[in-house]
Amino acid sequence: MQQVPMKEQGSQTLLEMYLRALDLEAFQDNYQAYAKDATRSGLPYERFLLALCEAEISHRKAQKIERAIAAAKFPFVKEL
Q: I need a labelling partner for 53 at 20 to 30 A (CA). Which of 15, 47, 70, 78 fits?
């Protein structure tokens, strides 16, 4: 595991706390990997944020569909 300087650890912890408070689950799950990729490929900040927003939107849509299916309480198909 890569060593993170103490000051960055505090920022990282604070960021993760804010992402939890804002209920940005996909941001929290993906921001580190996306940040590394953005740094490696030299993406501008706007593109990095756009990718995170796209991941969050996709995650929320999938959760919404799952909740709707669960709420519908479809009967199970029984076959002999």
A: 70
The pLDDT averaged over each successive group of 10 residues in the chain (80 residues) is 58 91 92 92 92 94 93 80
Residue with tokens 């900040």: 45
Q: Would residue 13 count as lying in a domain?
A: no
Cα 22 to Cα 9, 36, 44, 53: the distances in Å are 20, 23, 24, 13
Instruction: At 75, list the tokens.
Output: 């009967």
Torsions phi, psi for 20 (to 5 deg): -65, -45
> 52 and 30 in contact (C-beta within 8 Å)?
yes
**Encoding tokens for residue 74?**
């479809």
